[in-house]
């Protein structure tokens, strides 16, 4: 699929920059994505990282850590479940790799995961949650990619309906939409 961008937006995706955002702030990315809904698709089509992991990891593919593209995340074993959330009507189906699989890929060594969203939401969650629960890094909701304006492109989501103890505020708070970074400590 070839994406044609207006000439006025071409500079947003053709500039060379390292896998981690440098001169472009997360806020600018959000504004650009809101103004041009196809921008996130264009970045993904170009194979740019959508999830950067840094900190206590043994495997990296850049000086800043490890950058996952959507294709890389899609190539990992996929899991899915339906669950009710405080943010959605009904019980959407979420699909993506297990968080523990993503962490295993980079050989994460830490006890705490600092999850950061494009909207500057930051939360620390215990690394043990990835082993204890079938937490996924959702790429799809109801079989469709999630645009930034609909909490995408990545969403850490717990299987809230699997166990009653997951239907508590502490786990709702650990679900990070617009996930763009994990820092392992």
Short structural description:
This protein has helices spanning 10-14, 26-35, 39-45, 70-75, 99-105, 128-132, 169-174, and strands spanning 51-55, 66-68, 79-82, 93-96, 112-117, 122-126, 136-138, 140-141, 144-145, 155-157, 179-184.
Features:
185 residues, alpha+beta, Sulfite Oxidase, Chain A, domain 2, 5-stranded mixed sheet, 4-stranded antiparallel sheet, 11 strands, Oxidoreductase molybdopterin-binding domain-containing protein, OxRdtase_Mopterin-bd_sf
Word description of this protein:
The protein has 185 residues and is of the alpha+beta class. The chain has a single domain (11-184), classed as Alpha-Beta Complex (Sulfite Oxidase, Chain A, domain 2). It is 25% helix and 23% strand. It has 7 helices and 11 strands. It has helices at 10-14, 26-35, 39-45, 70-75, 99-105, 128-132, 169-174, and strands spanning 51-55, 66-68, 79-82, 93-96, 112-117, 122-126, 136-138, 140-141, 144-145, 155-157, 179-184. The strands form 3 sheets. Strands 2-1-11-5-6 form a 5-stranded mixed beta sheet. Strands 3-4-8-9 form a 4-stranded antiparallel beta sheet, with no helix packed on it. The protein has a two-stranded antiparallel ribbon with strand order 7-10. A hairpin with a 2-residue loop joins strand 8 and strand 9 (144-145). The longest helix has 10 residues, at 26-35. The relative contact order is 0.18. Residues 1-24 and 35-39 have low confidence and may be disordered. This is Oxidoreductase molybdopterin-binding domain-containing protein.
């Amino acid at each position: 699929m070839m994406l044609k961008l207006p000439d006025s937006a071409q500079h947003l995706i053709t500039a060379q920059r390292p896998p981690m955002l440098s001169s472009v702030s997360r806020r600018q990315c959000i504004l650009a994505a809101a103004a041009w809904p196809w921008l996130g698709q264009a970045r993904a089509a170009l194979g740019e990282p959508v999830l950067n992991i840094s900190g206590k990891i043994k495997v990296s593919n850049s000086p800043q850590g490890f950058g996952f593209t959507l294709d890389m995340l899609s190539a990992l074993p996929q899991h899915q479940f339906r669950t009710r959330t405080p943010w959605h009507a009904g019980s959407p189906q979420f699909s993506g790799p297990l968080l523990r699989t993503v962490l295993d890929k980079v050989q994460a060594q830490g006890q705490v995961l600092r999850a950061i969203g494009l909207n500057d939401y930051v939360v620390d969650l215990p690394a043990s949650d990835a082993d204890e629960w079938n937490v996924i890094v959702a790429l799809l909701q109801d079989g469709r990619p999630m645009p930034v304006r609909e909490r995408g492109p990545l969403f850490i989501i717990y299987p809230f309906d699997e166990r009653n103890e997951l239907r508590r505020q502490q786990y709702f708070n650990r679900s990070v939409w617009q996930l763009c970074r994990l820092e392992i400590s």
